Amino acid sequence: MTQFTTISEILEAVEEQDIDFVKFHFSDADGIFKEIDVPSALLENAFSKGLPFDNSVGGTFKPTGSDLMLKPDPRTFSILSYGNARLNTKQRYGRVTCELTFLDGQAFDGCVRSNLKLFVRKIYQSGYTFSVSSSLSFYLFDSASVLPVCAPSASSAPFASSVPSASLSPETILKMENVKRDILTALNNADVDIVSLRQTHVGGPIAMVFKDGSVLRTADNMMTAKYLVSDVARRHNLHASFMPKPATNLEGLSATFGFTLMKDEFNEFYHPDQDMMISDKARGFIAGIFKHIRAISAVTNPSVNSYKRIVQKGKAPYYVSWSAVDRNSLVRLPSSRGRATKIEVQNADSSCNPYLSLLVLIAAGISGIDEELTPVAAVNFETHDYSESEKLALSAGTLPSTLREAIAAFNSDTLIKDALGESVSTSIYQTAAMEWNEYIGCVHAWELEKYL
Fold this sequence. Notes:
This protein has about 450 residues and is of the alpha+beta class. The chain folds into two domains: about 5-105, Roll (Ubiquitin-like (UB roll)); about 120-450, Glutamine synthetase/guanido kinase, catalytic domain (Creatine Kinase, Chain A, domain 2, 2-Layer Sandwich). About 35% of the residues lie in helices and about 20% in strands. The protein is built from 13 helices and 15 strands. The chain has helices at about 5-15, 45-50, 110-125, 170-190, 215-235, 280-300, 305-310, 355-370, 390-395, 405-410, 415-420, 420-440, 445-450; strands spanning about 20-25, 35-40, 50-55, 70, 80, 90-100, 130-140, 195-200, 205-215, 240, 255-265, 265, 320-325, 330, 345. Helix 6 (about 280-300) crosses helix 10. The longest helix is centred in the middle third of the chain and has 21 residues, at about 215-235. The protein starts with 6 loop residues before the first helix and ends with a helix.
């Protein structure tokens, strides 16, 4: 796939392939792409000068007293096809990821992408570079079966993917296979590099595993992938869900981030002569995340539903622990060492905003290195048969059990809020507080079944 780097290359490709419009995408604080369609005739001016717009577009930005400007990043431009790729559809459109500024070009601190880019740039200026691996999972549901929130029958979860695989019709299985094939085509066309698109069993979650890349490219790829997966599924009359725990009897949906810290071509997390062959910087990075993880959870696990996935006996991390063996630990050390030494954080879910999640995880990890922190001892053995009290004794505590706990921790964590900036921090706290208040005032299916 062609990698565009300049405005002239984009304009030439748009003309050659007869593109009618380009979708200008920008992320809100909730991690959802908003879009404005720009006719091809206006592209040159929009790319070179930016695109002014009313900051109420999408309804998620707090009033700033000023309109904003979309500044597209030419390196994220790609050309995609309408409809089903197997039908050889001729209609095409362009898309590009944008940042937000004020009309005078000054930075808008509510822009999640530029906040991450500026933070990573400071690290780069100190001589360090982060490389990130990541994964993201989702479900494919029958669009006609998706029920509204708080519907009394919601607990039955009549989704295609909640039905045992043996009962799925051959037509449904074939349809899902066709969707996965078209998702791979769309990701390739958008220059989103993945290692695999895997589904361990029919009707189960589908995981996208992304190739290692820079921090910003990783976040861009994850956001673009979520958009494309949803778009392809919709064109097949299916619904792609990134809801952390869409049904009681379904496996939760995760997002993972694996970090490598490089300096002068050397992996700073590796040390051949220390325990587990990892450095003091690696231990400091882990300890920094542990110190701030309860506040971080408000970002990496941003909804009420996120905490239906994080339970004591679930597959998702619950205890604040790290291990090279226990796959359910909060932080996992993959077996590779040397240049490939990596610290993998596993608590995030698929609903998270990758721009903000990467920012707070790196900020916490770097603070742990700077403060020369040391984490609790690693749990390098399986803990399946251990009691909950034994697991707690081996850990540095637990993750929050509810969104309310997470936002309380977030509101008292100065480092995390400073890393995000005042505008984004305020948005996260207010949105979460509003969601929690709505949730506790809603009568749910479980309550009706138990008490009615």
